[in-house]
Amino acid sequence: MQRQSWPRAWLMTDERLGDALSDAIARAAEAGAGVIVRHHASSAAQRRAIAAEVLARGAMLGLSRDSLLAADLGAALVHNPQDESGFLPFSLSVHDTAQAMEAARRGPALVFVSPLYPTRSHPDAAALGEDAALALARNCGCPAYALGGVSAARGEELMTRGWAGWAGIDAWT
């Protein structure tokens, strides 16, 4: 099986983006970033419409949780799959040592380690800091992406320190 080439940057969507969603998708696509459609509170029809926009703009699509819907939509991966269907490569969120060890056991295509820095989307989550986050990333056994308070400029700098790339929400708005 040929190894997938993953983007260096990702947009993580959710309902908080509101009216800024289409512009964020456009910016991410123009930058060659992938887009992970999380929108967990949205209906399958709404998730399909968002995914269609991502694909129409030419960005790599990831869909959160639902492996069957991700496969049906032509997604490149499923993020935090609810099942072990095996249809697609998958990514996982990593916030602590236990999740890093679980990722190493499960063998995802990539992981998103967060939050590196304080973030508006999760204001009550304690930031890991760069050293602790990178230590978690190295335990996962796969490409790791920095997430949480990461801007494009910070993301580029982090890649010089061992990260495969970066992901964000506000960085794209």
Describe the structure.
The protein has 173 residues and is an alpha/beta fold. The protein is built from six helices and eight strands, in the order βαβαβαββαβαβαβ. The chain has an eight-stranded parallel barrel, surrounded by six helices. The longest helix has 13 residues, at 44-56. It is globular, with a radius of gyration of 15 Å.
Attribute tags:
alpha/beta, 18% strand, 8 strands, 173 residues, eight-stranded parallel beta barrel
Low-confidence stretches: none
Count the strands? 8
Per DSSP, the total helix count is 6
Largest sheet: 8 strands, parallel, barrel
Q: Can you write the helix and strand succession as a string?
A: EHEHEHEEHEHEHE
Q: Based on CA inertia axes, which overall geometry fits?
A: globular
Helical coverage, percent range? 25-40%
Question: Looking across the biggest beta sheet, what order are the strands in?
Answer: 1-2-3-4-5-6-7-8
Rounded to an integer in angstroms, the radius of gyration calculated over CA atoms is: 15 Å
What portion of the residues fall into strands of 2 or more residues?
Answer: 15-25%
Q: Could you tell me how far the N terminus lies from the C terminus, measured between alpha carbons in angstroms?
A: 36 Å
Kindly name the structural category. Answer: alpha/beta
Provide mean pLDDT, rounded: 93
